């Protein structure tokens, strides 16, 4: 059994009228995906993980992640698709959804070649560079990029098979339910498909090519099943030196028949993260990202370009305890961020203090 706890305090210098970092119209959903509250202390996430590895061929294992909190679990539960337009309407929580079964799957290491691992159940997505924070990995920054929040799915329910071809190449293929509703249910009669190709060209470089696609149309609407949604994703990790690391991420997404009478909607984004370890107890993480919602399909604002710059000093005060301080600057070409009077402005600045404990 393993565990993880994350708690935080965040503050928005815009002093938004609604006390959130979400933004205003023409946005139809909260622009910040987990760190949504202004001037607030929060228990972001508490996680208990029950795990049995399936390392050898023929082994059967499992993983069960139960999470409770007022940021990540609520955010994972807010994945909804509009029943009329199919557009993503992730937003502020409206119900008692502080618990989330983040992952729950069984693994069989089939005796094929070097071992074909087959997972069946619910699992986090393979798409994107950022992750759901947990005992076995967390992001270098406290907040998530717009690329993570609005460019990709979060979790899937289905079956996936992973295979290491050799020391340099690996592949994965997946069949799952639809993107939203946390992937636990399907909104039509078809399934989505995912794939990953991993490549290690050098000892200090890794490259992941990810894909997810499937029909997302809701039965009984004028769109039917005729709107295929795609996401293409690339993640590159480079260990420049023993102390300096670089991570690059690029996404391109599209959906056919994105609304009544509408054509194909597109969105794309890029992100870069630099991490420098000064010593055993202190690191500095710097991130920049850009997300383009060309047709307003993801956030509701047409021709919306979102940019952010984030700097996060990290202090490892104990072997299993981390303290982070974060400054983040958000910008848009539209006045989508909220001011103290409730009107829109093109920028917002936030700070956050975050504590992580893992075991």
TrEMBL record:
InterPro entries: BBP2, Porin_dom_sf. It holds the Pfam family BBP2. Gene3D superfamilies: Porin. This is Porin.
């Amino acid at each position: 059994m393993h565990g993880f706890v994350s708690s935080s305090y965040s503050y928005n210098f815009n002093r938004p009228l609604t006390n959130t970092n979400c933004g205003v119209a023409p946005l139809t959903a909260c622009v910040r995906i987990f760190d949504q509250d202004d001037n607030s202390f929060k228990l972001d996430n508490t996680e208990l993980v029950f795990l049995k590895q399936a390392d050898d061929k023929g082994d059967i294992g499992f993983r069960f992640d139960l999470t409770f909190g007022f940021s990540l679990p609520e955010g994972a539960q807010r994945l909804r698709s509009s029943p009329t337009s199919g557009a993503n309407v992730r937003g502020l929580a409206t119900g008692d959804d502080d618990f989330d079964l983040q992952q729950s799957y069984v693994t069989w290491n089939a005796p094929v070649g070097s071992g074909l691992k087959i997972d069946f159940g619910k699992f986090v997505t393979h798409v994107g560079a950022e992750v759901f924070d947990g005992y076995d990995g967390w992001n270098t920054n406290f907040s998530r990029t717009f690329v993570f929040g609005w460019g990709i799915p979060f979790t899937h329910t289905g079956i996936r098979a992973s295979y290491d071809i050799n020391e340099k190449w690996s592949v994965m293929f997946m069949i799952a339910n639809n993107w939203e509703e946390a992937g636990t249910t399907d909104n039509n009669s078809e399934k989505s498909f995912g794939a990953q190709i991993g490549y290690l060209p050098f000892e200090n470089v890794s490259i992941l090519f990810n894909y997810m696609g499937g029909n997302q149309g809701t039965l009984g609407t004028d769109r039917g099943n005729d709107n295929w949604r795609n996401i293409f994703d690339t993640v590159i990790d480079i260990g420049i030196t023993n102390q300096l690391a670089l991570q690059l991420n690029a996404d391109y997404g599209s959906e056919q028949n994105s609304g009544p009478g509408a054509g194909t909607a597109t969105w794309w984004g890029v992100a870069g993260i630099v991490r420098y370890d000064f010593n055993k107890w202190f690191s500095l993480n710097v991130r920049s990202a850009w997300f383009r919602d060309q047709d307003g399909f993801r956030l509701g604002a047409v021709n919306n370009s979102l940019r952010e710059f984030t700097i996060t000093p990290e202090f490892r005060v104990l072997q299993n305890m981390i303290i982070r301080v974060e400054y983040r600057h958000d910008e848009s070409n539209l006045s989508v961020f909220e001011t103290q009077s409730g009107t829109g402005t093109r920028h917002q600045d936030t700070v956050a203090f975050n504590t992580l404990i893992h075991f």
